[in-house]
Write a structure and sequence with these properties.
By secondary structure, the protein is an alpha/beta fold. The protein is about 50% helix and about 10% strand. It contains 22 helices and eleven strands. The strands form two sheets. It has a six-stranded mixed beta sheet with strand order 1-2-11-10-8-9, sandwiched between helices. Strand 6, helix 12 and strand 7 form a beta-alpha-beta unit. The longest helix has 28 residues. The radius of gyration is 25 Å and the shape is globular. It starts with a helix and ends with a helix. The chain binds 6-O-phosphono-beta-D-fructofuranose. The site of 6-O-phosphono-beta-D-fructofuranose has 13 residues, from loops.
């Protein structure tokens, strides 16, 4: 009986040097180690795991009462214990009847907010809601950062072919004057609708950016009511939004039971809905809802998020691989690695258990990635030939959106070839045979062969989407949300807080104080010297 993670690690340790290719003597392997949910097919046969080891992982998950934890999340238990909050983003994409049964008296506010959002989208699109100058809106600027940015960014990018409203939707996140200038140079002040997204409405970057855009708009327009007419906000902090100057009627609520990085499904999705329309936004939520239903009810052996999570734990803890590459071979999915960096590492990059005890095992892998094939001409050299093994998720759409079908075929061929190459590798003797067949001298063969060997045995998953649609993309995001949640639960940590970001914020304030001539005991002489250099430059 596998009772704890150490049992799993001991089991994995025994097979660390096993060849993945050797597992394919089971001719049914590709068939068996795959699962389909709606429009998403997962092939995990290129993982270094066999049936018995998978069963052991499932057994361990059951022993950890994973089903109870899943039920706790869906039913609104306060599983975010360090913040004393429920975690109910799934309720936002559930049918109304389920919303009522889970959210109880809170359900109506959620439904009213959805209606308010849909009305804003309809009114902006129809021209019923116009700018301060009486013109139809042409552009939307969403200002927010972290969880109030990544979800919108990844969905706007993925669903570009579904931007159907005619509005150009832009995002501004980083506190960098260059990024603000870019928007100011691009956007027409008189016809741009602004949505400020900040759960707390205290985030330094968002407030600074919002203030800069507000000042620019006020100076660029003769209409002094431009902020009142053209600005919206999504926040829990209604008073702060009103003090900023945004009209009460233009504030849509957020709730403390929806975490920032899981908030796309709430009013935070307004900029996205303004791009893909209400129907597109509903389809996105329906796709996520379909994955929720599967996650809640499928046995663990066929449960896509649970399987992805268990395989990730097998690689991270059992085989001690410290990273995870996310490689979408689809231009539409190019923002996915950045999105998953936040969702995964901000959720599970922790070393303390819910109980407060120090964890004795590793947690979130270092997530990185890029769209294929670009990654092949960059970091994939390391994946093929360094001693580090980098487990990989390959993600493709079977049907590309472009009319250039030959491009799509080459793109997909590259994706399949990379997962094969990472698994197969090339041994020294294979390389020597090749070089000899090419007519090289024995001396040249000996010199060159070690440089051309590839370690292989790198595990990967391949996720195939029929095509990237609002529905399949919603399901894909929910798949990763749940995978991350399951991993956090099995690692016994809280995936829904992010205390690690606080120290940087505190010290940021100290740095600013010193830059402005005040004293701080909290900074090292290294940082004080850097600040002095910055101040000298500013003084010139
Ligand atoms: O990165 C830290 C964080 O607190 C995230 O959790 C959050 O999504 C982001 O900052 C922005 O916070 P807010 O929505 O309150 O502006």
């Amino acid at each position: 009986m596998f009772q704890d993670l150490n049992d799993i690690c001991l089991l994995a340790d025994k097979v660390k040097n096993r060849s993945i290719l050797s597992l394919f003597t089971d001719t049914n392997r590709a068939d068996k180690l795959s699962v389909t949910v709606g429009d998403i097919f997962l092939d995990y046969s290129k993982q270094n795991i066999n049936d018995d080891e998978l069963s052991a992982l499932v057994q361990w998950a059951e022993h950890c009462h994973l089903s109870d934890t899943i039920n706790d999340m869906f039913s609104g238990e306060k599983i975010n214990e360090t913040e004393n909050r429920a975690v109910l983003h799934t309720a936002l994409r559930a049918p109304d009847s389920l919303k009522h049964s889970v959210l109880k008296e809170k359900a109506q506010e959620v439904i009213d907010t959805e209606n308010q959002m849909a009305e804003i989208v309809d009114n902006v699109c129809s021209g019923k809601l116009v700018s301060a100058s009486g013109e139809k809106f042409t552009d939307v600027l969403a200002i927010g950062i972290g969880g109030s940015y990544y979800g919108i960014k990844v969905a706007l990018t993925a669903l570009k072919p579904y931007h159907s409203t005619g509005l150009n939707v832009h995002v501004l996140a980083n506190v960098d004057g260059g990024a603000v200038d870019e928007k100011i140079n691009l956007l027409p002040a008189e016809t741009t609708l602004v949505v400020v997204i900040s759960k707390t409405f205290t985030t330094q970057e968002t407030l600074l950016n919002a203030t800069a855009i507000k000042n620019w708009m006020l100076s660029a327009s003769d209409n002094q009511d431009i902020i009142e007419k053209q600005w919206f906000a999504i926040s829990t902090n209604i008073n702060a939004v009103i003090s900023f100057g945004i009209s009460r009627q233009h504030i849509l609520p957020m709730w403390d039971w929806v975490g920032g990085r899981f908030s796309l499904w709430s009013a935070v999705g307004l900029p996205l809905a303004l791009a893909i329309g209400n129907q597109g936004f509903s389809q996105l939520k329906a796709g996520a809802g379909e994955m929720d239903e599967h996650f809640k009810s499928a046995p663990f052996e066929q449960n896509m998020p649970v399987l992805l999570a268990l395989l990730g734990i097998w690689n991270r803890n059992g085989l001690a691989y410290s990273s995870l590459a996310i490689l979408p071979y689809d231009h539409a999915l190019r923002a996915l690695p950045g999105y998953l960096q936040q969702t995964d590492m901000e959720s599970n990059g922790k070393s303390v258990a819910l109980s407060g005890e120090k964890l004795t095992w590793d947690t979130a892998p270092i997530v990185f990635g890029q769209e294929g094939t670009n990654g092949q001409h960059a970091f994939m050299q390391l994946m093929h030939q360094s001693d580090d093994i980098v487990p990989t998720d390959f993600i493709i759409a079977l049907n590309g959106t472009s009319q250039l079908k030959a491009h799509h075929q080459v793109l997909v061929a590259n994706c399949f070839a990379q997962s094969e190459a990472l698994m197969q590798g090339k041994t020294l003797s294979q390389v020597k045979d090749e070089l000899s067949a090419a007519g090289l001298s024995p001396a040249d063969i000996n010199n060159l062969a070690p440089h051309k060997t590839m370690k292989g045995n790198t595990p990967s998953n391949t996720l195939l989407l029929n095509s990237v649609t609002p529905q399949s993309f919603g399901a894909l995001l929910a798949l990763y949300e749940h995978k991350i949640f399951v991993q956090g639960a099995l690692w016994q940590l809280n995936s829904f807080d992010q205390w690690g970001v606080e120290l940087g914020k505190q010290l940021g304030n100290q740095v600013l104080k010193v830059m402005n001539g005040e004293h701080s005991d909290l900074l090292s002489t290294s940082s004080l010297a850097l600040i002095a250099k910055f101040n000298q430059t500013r003084a010139c």
